[in-house]
Amino acid sequence: VPARALMAAYRLPHDGTRECDAADLALTVLGGGESSRLHNRLVRRDQTAVAAGFGLLRLAGAPSLGWLDVKTSGGVEVPEIETAVDDELARFAAEGPTAEEMERAQAQLEREWLDRLGTVAGRADELCRYAVLFGDPQLALTAVTRVLDVTAEEVRAVAAARLRPDNRAVLVYEPVTADGDDASADEDETDEHEGADQ
Known about the structure:
Layout: E1 5-12, H1 18-31, H2 37-45, E2 49-57, E3 64-72, H3 78-95, H4 99-116, H5 120-134, H6 139-148, H7 152-162, E4 168-173, H8 178-197
Antiparallel strand pairs: 1-3, 1-4, 2-3
C-alpha cells in the first residue's frame, strides 16, 4: 500500500431497530463527509490524515457494522491516528451531537433516502429489501420518518454504548519497505526460474 491506513469495524445494533437509526446518525455526524467531526479533526486541524470516513453497514439478524476508514498523511504513525479517533469518540459519547449536527446529519440521510427512491430500480431495491428482511415493503416509504424521529440523546447513548475500543476489530495497513520489495522481487524471479526449469 502507498500509505498507512487505519480501518476498524464496530459492532452496532441490528438493522430495523431505532437504535440502529441512532447509530446511523452518530456515524454521519462523526464521519459522513467533509463537515464531519473526524474529517475536521484529522484532515483539517491536525493534518494527520488525507481522508477520514465512518459509515454504517446495516445487517438484519446480526449486528450491523460501523466501518471506520482513515488514510494517514506523510509519515504519520497509526497509533497517533487511533488516539485522536478514540478522543473524538469519547468526547461525542459524553457530549452528544449539537442541534446543528443533528439537523445536518438527518438532512444528509434524508437526501440519501430520496436518491435511492429517485429511480425505478432504486425503489424496487428498497421495497424488496424491506419485504424480504422485515416482511413489509411499505416500511421503505417510512424509513426516513423513523430517522428524523431519533433524538440527540439517543444518538449520544448509542455512541457511548457501542463506539468503544473494546467493541471493535482493527485492521492496520503498513507500506512495504524497500527491503521488502527487493525480497519479493527475488522470490518472484526464483519462482519464474523454477517454473521454467520444470
